[in-house]
Amino acid sequence: MTPTQLRSLRLPVMVAPMFLVSGPDMVIAAARSGVIGAFPTPNCRTTEELDTWMARIKAETKDAPGLWAVNLVTHRTNSRLADDLELVAKYQPPIVITALGSPAPAIETVHRYGGIVLADVVNVALGRKAAAAGADGLVAVSSGAGGHTGQVSPFAFISSLREMFEGIICVGGAISDGMGVAGAVAAGADLVYMGTRFLAAKESLAVPDYKAMVVGAETHDIVVSDVVTGTPASWLKPSLDANGYDINGEAQKTERNYGGSDLGKRWKDVWAAGQGVGAVKTSEPLSAIVDQIELDFRAAQTRLAGY
User: Fold this and answer.
1) Do residues 203 and 286 make contact, with C-beta atoms less than 8 angstroms apart?
2) What is the distance between the alpha carbons of residues 217 and 231, in angstroms, rounded to a whole number?
3) Residuewise pLDDT in 10s, the chain (307 residues)
4) % helix, strand, coil for the chain, step of 5
5) Which of 81-117 are b and which e, b meaning 16 or more Cβ less than 10 Å from the residue's Cβ?
6) How many whole angstroms separate alpha carbon 10 and alpha carbon 7?
7) Which value, to the nearest 10 degrees, does the dihedral of the CA atoms of residues 102, 108, 109, 115 take?
8) In the chain, where are the structural domains located?
9) How far apart are CA 141 and CA 7, in angstroms?
10) Is the distance from CB of 37 to CB of 30 less than 8 angstroms?
């Protein structure tokens, strides 16, 4: 799959894989809407559940105009990685995204069946390492992204990566409407990660209170802290307050751990979102959100053509 082939999508958008939020309904709805749907494998408690999810997604997106992807945590603490890779080989998702570690463990498996590997990176140094490991694309997780986030401006990040990488560049970070998508593409990106905009979608696995908090939130409600997982992440501050996290108090060392059920417990009632949260005004079907993004994207194209 090449950047040219990705342009056959309705929009250059991936509904980003969101922990405890993205499930089969969201992935299928995204693919049927002509974009890319993705989910992180840790959203499944067991490999048996993951097998069921992937079987359903593959069957129900067979004739869809969009694509589907899985997100693998390749950090050494993920003891289930080998089992997840076996299911990747079985169901052959077109795109595999690696996060919180090198893409190397996934590359041979995915390339064997003709898929592509995109590697999450938060800075140029990690981008170089991922490219050297053989990643087909880089996901530039930039400042303003929800969940685990970077610190570099999306536009500066795209520019820096383009100087050293000719593959697919996907960028995410506070891009929450079609105008932002058009701007990212104009700056050199091939795809745009959009997570926060879809948090309150009808197909989201987010609990009702989480969706309500997202709908009512603005940019000033987002804070970045490593207090939950040991890695900097963007959180809805009211959810941190409700769970007793004092981000202004004495710093506490949180050990990085991305395996086992403890991670899910830590994220269950502490809710992530990006700086684009203000664009979420209501809970509606994913297809309606994509429709609006396309309208804004086309309007931005027209506006750019006028210069």
Assistant:
1) yes
2) 23
3) 666 678 789 999 999 999 999 999 999 999 999 999 999 999 999 999 999 999 999 999 999 999 999 999 998 888 899 999 999 999 999 999 999 899 999 999 999 999 999 999 999 999 999 999 999 999 999 999 999 899 999 999 999 999 999 999 999 999 999 999 999 999 999 999 999 999 999 999 999 999 999 999 999 999 999 888 888 899 999 999 999 988 775 445 455 555 554 554 556 789 999 999 999 999 999 999 999 999 999 999 999 999 9
4) 45, 15, 40
5) beebbebbeebbbbbbbbbbbbbbbbbebbeeeebbb
6) 8
7) 90
8) 3-201+284-305, 208-268
9) 21
10) yes
8 Å CB contact between 216 and 188: no
Instruction: Tell me which of 3.40.1280.10, 3.10.129.10, 3.30.70.1230, 3.20.20.70 is the CATH number of domain 3-201+284-305.
Output: 3.20.20.70
CB atoms within 10 A of CB 1: 15
Distance, CA of 147 to CA of 277 (rounded, Å) = 12
DSSP letter assigned to residue 269: S
The helix/strand/coil state of 81 is helix
Q: Tell me how many helices (H) and strands (E) the chain has.
A: 12, 11
